[in-house]
Amino acid sequence: GLLAGVAFTFLFAIAGLVAGRLADLTSRRTLVVASVVLSAAALAGLGCATCFMWALAARVVLGLFQSLIGPGAYSLIAQTFPPTSRAKANAVYGAGLYCGAALASISQVLNRSLGLGWRGTHFLVAGAALVMAAIAAKLIKEPPR
Question: Which residue spans traverse the membrane (predicted)?
Protein backbone atom coordinates (compact mmCIF):
# COMPACT_ATOMS: atom_id res chain seq x y z
CA GLY A 1 0.00 0.00 0.00
CA LEU A 2 0.98 3.55 0.69
CA LEU A 3 3.82 2.74 3.13
CA ALA A 4 5.38 -0.06 1.11
CA GLY A 5 5.01 1.49 -2.32
CA VAL A 6 4.09 5.07 -3.03
CA ALA A 7 5.67 6.74 0.03
CA PHE A 8 9.06 5.24 -0.72
CA THR A 9 9.09 4.82 -4.49
CA PHE A 10 7.71 8.19 -5.58
CA LEU A 11 10.24 10.24 -3.64
CA PHE A 12 13.00 7.76 -4.52
CA ALA A 13 12.35 8.29 -8.23
CA ILE A 14 12.09 12.08 -8.06
CA ALA A 15 15.03 12.55 -5.71
CA GLY A 16 17.15 10.22 -7.85
CA LEU A 17 17.23 12.90 -10.53
CA VAL A 18 18.70 15.40 -8.09
CA ALA A 19 20.99 12.73 -6.65
CA GLY A 20 22.70 12.32 -10.01
CA ARG A 21 23.66 15.97 -10.06
CA LEU A 22 24.77 15.81 -6.44
CA ALA A 23 27.05 12.88 -7.32
CA ASP A 24 28.57 15.02 -10.08
CA LEU A 25 29.31 17.89 -7.70
CA THR A 26 30.41 16.20 -4.46
CA SER A 27 32.52 13.34 -3.16
CA ARG A 28 30.77 10.18 -4.28
CA ARG A 29 32.34 8.23 -1.42
CA THR A 30 30.96 10.67 1.13
CA LEU A 31 27.58 10.71 -0.63
CA VAL A 32 27.29 6.91 -0.57
CA VAL A 33 28.47 6.46 3.02
CA ALA A 34 26.38 9.36 4.37
CA SER A 35 23.32 8.11 2.49
CA VAL A 36 23.64 4.66 4.04
CA VAL A 37 24.04 6.17 7.53
CA LEU A 38 21.02 8.44 7.00
CA SER A 39 19.03 5.51 5.61
CA ALA A 40 19.85 3.61 8.80
CA ALA A 41 18.53 6.55 10.81
CA ALA A 42 15.31 6.52 8.76
CA LEU A 43 14.96 2.77 9.34
CA ALA A 44 15.41 3.30 13.08
CA GLY A 45 12.83 6.09 12.88
CA LEU A 46 10.45 3.67 11.23
CA GLY A 47 11.06 1.21 14.06
CA CYS A 48 10.17 3.95 16.55
CA ALA A 49 6.96 4.95 14.75
CA THR A 50 3.93 5.10 17.01
CA CYS A 51 1.41 6.17 14.39
CA PHE A 52 0.78 5.89 10.68
CA MET A 53 1.93 9.44 9.88
CA TRP A 54 5.27 8.88 11.63
CA ALA A 55 5.76 5.64 9.69
CA LEU A 56 4.80 7.41 6.46
CA ALA A 57 7.28 10.22 7.11
CA ALA A 58 10.03 7.71 7.90
CA ARG A 59 9.36 5.84 4.63
CA VAL A 60 9.48 9.10 2.66
CA VAL A 61 12.78 10.04 4.32
CA LEU A 62 14.10 6.52 3.66
CA GLY A 63 13.22 6.87 -0.02
CA LEU A 64 15.01 10.20 -0.17
CA PHE A 65 18.23 8.96 1.40
CA GLN A 66 18.31 5.67 -0.47
CA SER A 67 17.88 7.51 -3.76
CA LEU A 68 21.27 9.14 -3.18
CA ILE A 69 23.18 5.85 -3.05
CA GLY A 70 22.83 4.61 -6.64
CA PRO A 71 24.14 7.62 -8.58
CA GLY A 72 27.20 7.84 -6.33
CA ALA A 73 27.82 4.10 -6.52
CA TYR A 74 27.48 3.90 -10.31
CA SER A 75 29.75 6.92 -10.73
CA LEU A 76 32.37 5.33 -8.46
CA ILE A 77 32.17 2.10 -10.44
CA ALA A 78 32.59 3.98 -13.71
CA GLN A 79 35.75 5.70 -12.49
CA THR A 80 37.24 2.87 -10.46
CA PHE A 81 37.01 0.00 -12.94
CA PRO A 82 38.61 -0.09 -16.38
CA PRO A 83 36.27 -0.38 -19.38
CA THR A 84 37.10 -4.08 -19.76
CA SER A 85 35.65 -4.95 -16.34
CA ARG A 86 33.13 -2.16 -15.80
CA ALA A 87 30.13 -4.18 -16.98
CA LYS A 88 31.01 -6.97 -14.55
CA ALA A 89 31.39 -4.48 -11.69
CA ASN A 90 27.96 -2.99 -12.50
CA ALA A 91 26.49 -6.50 -12.66
CA VAL A 92 27.90 -7.32 -9.21
CA TYR A 93 26.46 -4.08 -7.80
CA GLY A 94 23.09 -4.78 -9.43
CA ALA A 95 23.08 -8.35 -8.12
CA GLY A 96 23.75 -6.97 -4.65
CA LEU A 97 20.66 -4.78 -4.92
CA TYR A 98 18.46 -7.75 -5.81
CA CYS A 99 20.05 -9.96 -3.14
CA GLY A 100 19.26 -7.21 -0.64
CA ALA A 101 15.66 -7.14 -1.82
CA ALA A 102 15.48 -10.92 -1.46
CA LEU A 103 16.89 -10.70 2.06
CA ALA A 104 14.34 -8.01 2.89
CA SER A 105 11.58 -10.39 1.90
CA ILE A 106 12.62 -12.77 4.67
CA SER A 107 11.89 -10.16 7.32
CA GLN A 108 8.70 -12.06 8.12
CA VAL A 109 10.87 -15.04 9.04
CA LEU A 110 12.94 -12.84 11.35
CA ASN A 111 9.78 -11.43 12.87
CA ARG A 112 8.48 -14.90 13.71
CA SER A 113 11.58 -16.97 14.42
CA LEU A 114 13.59 -14.43 16.41
CA GLY A 115 10.60 -12.76 18.00
CA LEU A 116 11.85 -9.35 16.93
CA GLY A 117 8.58 -8.01 15.64
CA TRP A 118 8.48 -5.43 12.89
CA ARG A 119 10.13 -2.77 15.05
CA GLY A 120 13.02 -5.01 16.05
CA THR A 121 13.54 -6.02 12.44
CA HIS A 122 13.87 -2.37 11.44
CA PHE A 123 16.43 -1.80 14.21
CA LEU A 124 18.35 -4.92 13.15
CA VAL A 125 18.48 -3.78 9.53
CA ALA A 126 19.47 -0.26 10.61
CA GLY A 127 22.34 -1.74 12.61
CA ALA A 128 23.44 -3.84 9.64
CA ALA A 129 23.36 -0.71 7.47
CA LEU A 130 25.62 1.11 9.92
CA VAL A 131 28.09 -1.79 9.82
CA MET A 132 28.04 -1.68 6.01
CA ALA A 133 28.56 2.10 6.07
CA ALA A 134 31.62 1.65 8.29
CA ILE A 135 33.02 -1.00 5.95
CA ALA A 136 32.33 1.19 2.92
CA ALA A 137 34.02 4.16 4.59
CA LYS A 138 37.13 2.03 5.09
CA LEU A 139 37.20 0.37 1.67
CA ILE A 140 35.90 2.95 -0.82
CA LYS A 141 38.44 5.42 -2.11
CA GLU A 142 37.38 8.55 -3.97
CA PRO A 143 38.99 8.33 -7.42
CA PRO A 144 40.25 11.51 -9.04
CA ARG A 145 37.88 13.06 -11.57
Answer: 6-23, 30-55, 61-78, 90-110, 122-140
